[in-house]
Amino acid sequence: MKLFIDTAEVDDIRKYAFILDGVTTNPTLIMKSGRKFEDVIREITSIVDGPISAEVTSLASEEMVKQGIELSKIHRNVIIKVPCTVDGLKACRELTKKGIKVNVTLIFSANQALLAAKCGAFVVSPFIGRLDDIGQTGLDLVEEIVEIYKNYSFKTQVLVASVRNPIHVKAAARIGAHICTCPTNVIESMFRHSLTDAGLQKFMEDSKKVKK
Ligand code: E4P
Description:
With 212 residues, the protein is α/β, with parallel strands linked by helices. 52% of the residues lie in helices and 17% in strands. The chain has helices at residues 10-16, 27-33, 37-45, 61-72, 86-97, 110-118, 128-133, 138-151, 166-175, 184-191, 194-209, and strands at 2-6, 22-24, 52-55, 78-83, 102-107, 123-126, 157-160, 179-182. The radius of gyration is 19 Å and the shape is globular.
């Protein structure tokens, strides 16, 4: 499974670049960075050599296509995020026809994922944490999408998004999702285990007692 980071904080991206296959951003994350949209995306492309999702902010398909074309000029790795609406999927179809890769975002049902695949999406982003938040099991949706895509050999990849904890990551990998995008704190927690820390501490102490 490919691992993406879900942030617009370039210091975090730099820190974990050695294990990252790509980056996802959204307007909220860019807003939190306090920087200009294009500056952030451009800088990210210089750190990670993999798909970098940049989201359109218009709601009408024609505008989304125009914006998507402009964003795709920033760097060959920029992929265009469009929302899963009628206009968004229309834009997905148009951008895909032009050879521009699209991430259909805000996916909350298997039928939305089916439509996105039929429109040629490069990836779809089911938001599992937000489903968990309202009492639905986000990972069930990932299972459904993976199954449907396998049934019809769709090339669209499943990018698990809105990840809240390391259990989400492990489960996504067991289901066979292609990609999981994680906030920085989840990536950090994947490295850690208390027995690793305790074991290392003991080895360090004992190494000082080794005869010279
Ligand atoms: C994915 O591309 C989104 O940026 C992200 O995963 C949304 O996560 P949230 O529900 O934690 O905002």
